[in-house]
Amino acid sequence: MTARTSPEPERAPVAAPRHTEAAAPAAPGYRARRTLPLRVEARRQLKRRRTLVIAALLTLLPFVLVAAFAIGGDPASRGNGRVTLMATATASGANFAATVLFVSAGFLLVVPVALFCGDTVASEASWSSLRYLLAAPVPRARLLLSKLTVGLIFSAAAMVLLPLVALGVGTAAYGWGPLELPTGGALSAGTAVPRLAIVVAYLFVSQLVTAALAFWLSTVTDAPLGAVGGAVGLTIIGNVLDQVTALGHWRDVLPAHWQFSWADTLQPRVEWAGMIQGSSVSVAYALVLCALAFRGFARKDVVS
To answer: How confident is the model at residue 209 (pLDDT cuts 50, 70, 90)?
Structure first.
């Protein structure tokens, strides 16, 4: 005769914590603000091949333009009597640097910004290392803040590198002299350098939209190429929409509508109205997109 055994009481399922890194007890000496230091993240990004490729391309561009001007002749002779920024490219090193910024602001500078800010979180997910970073534990907000800060620093460095190399190459090729203005007149060399610094600063602010867009896409996809390509593609769409004059005043809310407002610095007296409005539009979009990135990533189930 076998003894009757009472059935085991049914156990209630245990819900797994939504964020593993938040559920882990803090170890002695653990400080959330000391995790993933900026210098560590910057060193990682600096050693990556795409960083070196971007730096090489930006350094090479001024040399390519000097060679193009040498082969094609003086651009002033092809201006049909009109004085434009391109026509004065060989007047001095400052003019050459301004011309390089003009030809690269619309697209070339968009690529490194999208790359440095879009290839952040998504690259960790594609390498299946994101969940291990969070289990270290690195708080999610700290992870995003470190990667966004380093991405913006590298983007700013790219924007500074290009005009610095262009100014040096242009001075060696065309001499050090005043900046001839397309509107007539000239700025002394001592005045031209601060004006070019204003141009670079405004270009960085205007590209905050692309940076924030790439960063947000990087938090919602595991494909770095998708985040970078999506940011570049949407930026191009914005440029196309800005050319549709039928939109009228609706174009004022497009960041692309203000991307060349820095040209107001290349005149005897700087006009700030366009740059202030363009900066306001860019910063507003960037804040919204960054808020979406932080909010969405805080609730995301990380499995990569």
So the answer is: very high
For helices 140-174 and 273-298, give the axis angle rounded to 10 degrees.
150
Q: What is the pLDDT of residues 252-274, one digit of tens each?
A: 899 988 988 988 898 888 889 99
Which of 189, 183, 205, 191 is CA-nearest to residue 83? 183
Cα separation, 188 vs 177, in Å, equals: 7
- Going by the DSSP 8-state scheme, the letter that residue 3 receives in this structure is P
CB burial readout 124-140, b (16+ within 10 A) else e = bbbeeebbebbeebbbb
Close Cβ partners of 39 (under 8 Å, ≥ 6 residues apart): none
Residues 207 and 74 sit within 8 Å (Cβ to Cβ): no
Terminal C-alpha separation, the chain: 55
How confident is the model over 150-164, as pLDDT tens digits? 999 999 999 999 999
Task: Map residue 147 onto helix, strand or coil.
Answer: helix
